[in-house]
What we know:
By secondary structure, the chain is of the alpha/beta class. The chain contains six helices and eight strands, in the order αβαββααβααββββ. A hairpin with a 3-residue loop joins strand 2 and strand 3. The longest helix has 22 residues. The radius of gyration is 18 Å and the shape is globular.
Amino acid sequence: MSAHALRLGVSKTWNSLWFNKGQDYIEALHQDLQVKKYIKDKLNLAGLDNIVIRRGENTIDVTVYVARPGVAIGRGGSAMDLMKKDISKMTKLQANININEVKKADLSARILARSIADALEHRLPLKPAMENAKTKAVAAGADGVKIWVSGRINGASQARVVKISVGQVPLQTIKADLDYAEERASTRELGIFGIKVWIYYKKKESK
């Protein structure tokens, strides 16, 4: 169980906010997964942090949190218009998209995990990328950071895990405000790397 799922109803909430039942629920759930994958593929370069979906009777509202809203919106709103059109086709509902800026991107576990994945995919050294992510999070106000990267580190024949951490990261404390994310880096020479990032703040920060 992920750090987010463990805290649902305590310090975290659901990212899909709607009610349905029966076959309609199954169809809506698969549509949500499809929409999230679509947005993730489209907006990774915008520094994607989170996606929240709300459904009405004939509408679907998608709120996207990114570090660089200008990249997400596109010139003259062209990127948003295209996403609305595509999401409407996927769900057969009227789509509305809201782009919100993440004010403290270095406190986003997903943005930091993606930065490490990007470094690996561009053949940059792993350890400096991990240390850079950790340093940014601490400078932004994090009280604890933990980063795990698994794969064929430095071209090793077998996969292993590299871990770094600083401060306290209370994984078993349900009330602790932990941000958690998983990312994958695909490399041609060394295959797939898995990245996990946990960020802890004693006081809830506004990202």
